[in-house]
Amino acid sequence: MPNPPSILTIAGSDSGGGAGIQADLKTFAMLGGYGMSVITALTAQNSMGVTGIEAPSAEFVALQLTTVLEDFEVAAAKTGMLFSASIIESLAEKLEGKNFPLVVDPVCVSQSGHRLLQEDAVQALRERMLPLADLLTPNRPEAELLANIEIAGEVDLHEAAARLHDMGAGAVLIKGGHFDESELGQGRMADWLFMPGHEPLVLEQERVETTNTHGTGCTLSAAIAAGLGHGLHLDQAISLAQEYLNLGLRTGFAPGRGCGPINHSATLQYGLRGDMSEDVVARVAELTAKYGF
Fold first, then answer.
1. To which pathway does this protein belong (predicted)?
2. Which spans in 57-189 are helix H?
3. What does the radius of gyration of the chain's CA atoms come to, in whole angstroms?
4. What's the Cα-to-Cα distance from 53 to each of 15, 23, 62, rounded to whole Å?
5. 215 in active site
6. Is 259 a catalytic residue?
7. 3-state secondary structure (DSSP) of residue 55
8. Interatomic CA distance for residues 147 and 256, integer angstroms
9. Does residue 110 carry a pLDDT above 90?
């Protein structure tokens, strides 16, 4: 049996388990990858919010990455919370010669509103990390921050993506979770994929009404990286990630008193059990059959 593809996450730790490194590694495992990690920060975090952050030195973050790359053949990687300008600089220096696709999720603020990227790190993210991104996956506030534009309609979406391309990002996936159903003419959930030289793609999916949404951005970018690590084309990897995330949202739960996580184990739980709705069981069967995971 061949080894699974080695997928790397470079991100912060979520002690509550729903986002960050923890969400990424769960996603890699569920989608048939071997997960590895470079930890950029430790958060004291639960389902109600972030109470503290401690970051290792930039030198030690770089050492983690160097040590992983010296031994493992990385098939794909993603970044999440990078926290500081010095950490971004140290990582960018090591990643400049990469020979694998990199998904950059420009995490700036936690779901509870706690800042996860220092203010002086925003420019470093623009100048050093965006040019290394084969795919950039900002949500609406992140796209507005990085592109320095307010997105109020479809024209603004195109302009934001153009500005991000000009900064060096490859493909740009602007996620639709922060848009209302009535905005931009969409009655469903949609992400917008912009690729240089191609017409934008509106990637629709069913909107899930749930309050258990912790870790959605981390999970989506991790699932895309997993798909790329398996050799899927970018649009296929995004479709896989959307389907996996949608299923996790539909079967999410609340282990704490605040915002719960998505269910990263849905494909395992409901592929083996029959105690969920026929619709969810059918979605699991379709997902696993389609992608072979």
1. Cofactor biosynthesis; thiamine diphosphate biosynthesis
2. 58-71, 85-95, 122-124, 140-147, 154-166
3. 18
4. 11, 18, 19
5. yes
6. no
7. coil
8. 35
9. no
**Which candidate in 217, 227, 248, 260 is catalytic?**
217
* Residue 187 to residue 206: CA distance in whole angstroms: 9
Tokens of 239: 């479709």
- Nearest alpha-carbon partner for 163 in 151, 175, 178: 151
Following DSSP, what letter does each residue of 83-97 receive, concatenated? Answer: BSHHHHHHHHHHHTT
The residue annotated as part of the active site, out of 27, 40, 216, 251, is 216
Domain ranges of the chain: 6-291
Provide CATH code, domain 6-291. Answer: 3.40.1190.20
Residues 6+ apart with CB under 8 A from 99: none
Say which residues have a Cβ less than 8 Å from residue 130's Cβ, sequence separation at least 6.
104, 106, 136, 146, 164, 167, 168, 169
Q: Other CB atoms closer than 10 Å to residue 115's CB: what's the count? A: 12
Element (H, E) at 206: none
pLDDT in tens, 23-42: 999 999 999 999 999 999 99
| Interval 227-248: pLDDT, tens | 999 999 999 999 999 999 999 9
What phi, psi does 41 have (nearest 5°)? -165, 155
Q: Is 9 tagged catalytic? A: no
Residue 43 annotated among the catalytic residues of the structure: no
Six-digit token string for 241 = 């990630």
Residue of 215, 229, 252, 260 marked catalytic = 215
Q: Which amino acid is at 79?
A: T
Find the catalytic residue in 9, 17, 218, 219.
218
Q: Considering Cα of 3, then 218, then 82, then 93, what sign does the dihedral take?
A: positive
Confirm if 191 and 160 have CB atoms less than 8 A apart: no
Annotated catalytic residue, options 9, 175, 229, 248? 175
| Amino acid making up residue 19 | A
- Whether residue 3 has pLDDT greater than 80: yes
